[in-house]
Amino acid sequence: MRDFSNRRKGAVSTAALTDALGRLSTHRAHVLDLVSPTPGRVLQGRAVTIRFVPFREDVFDAQVNNFARLFYQAVPAHPEETVLVLDSGGHPDISVGGGTKFSRLQNRKLAGLLTDGRLRDFGELERYEPVFYCSGETVKAGTADLMPIAANVPVVIGGVTVLPGDFVYVDAAAAVIIPSTLVDETFQLAARIELEDAAFVTSIRGEDPREIRISGAQES
């Protein structure tokens, strides 16, 4: 299993990671419009997943569609570098849980949780060590609207496919899902991109507006 313990929180931005993945692959890898009870904190780690679907009474089984069972099925024995990723079953305005259900992340010392659904109890979640990112806060429980069906299967978050083992990196700007085979290369390239951007800032600071106006006129 790949060791992510050497990742430094805040070492690179999600913008740089997104640019790096844009050079290394062709699929969409970033998720926008996320909020957090603690927006200044960075969430990162290896993904484990639980898939939700819209509730159907005729197929619901309280033992099979049981979040606690699927949680412990998904989470490894040593989950400190683990991010629990929950899809919303295509319903981003519905809650996938709150402070009570997700106290399990605190107990097991997960890195945190990413979902494109809503969460309840921001006031409680902000006191937890794990970091939470979602589509927004809500007060209505979603148990009558969504049901969990499987652990550690591909899920879709904000139009992005997440596989178990992918590396998840989230800050206040966005979430970036990095394929497990591209983690090292992506972080290295993102660091170079940030150095390139810093060099561009220095170059722009020394621009001569007159030369640019003349050059622009000649090119046109």
Question: How would you portray this structure in words?
Answer:
This protein is α/β, with parallel strands linked by helices. The chain has a single domain, classed as Ribonuclease E inhibitor RraA/RraA-like (Glucose Oxidase, domain 1), CATH 3.50.30. It is built from six helices and twelve strands. Strands 1, 2, 3, 4, 6, 8, 11 and 12 form an eight-stranded mixed sheet that branches. Strands 5-7 form a two-stranded parallel ribbon. Helix 1 crosses helix 5. It is elongated and about 70 Å long. The relative contact order is 0.23.
Please outline what is shown here.
The protein is an alpha/beta fold. The protein has one domain (14-203): 3-Layer(bba) Sandwich (Glucose Oxidase, domain 1). 29% of the residues lie in helices and 23% in strands.
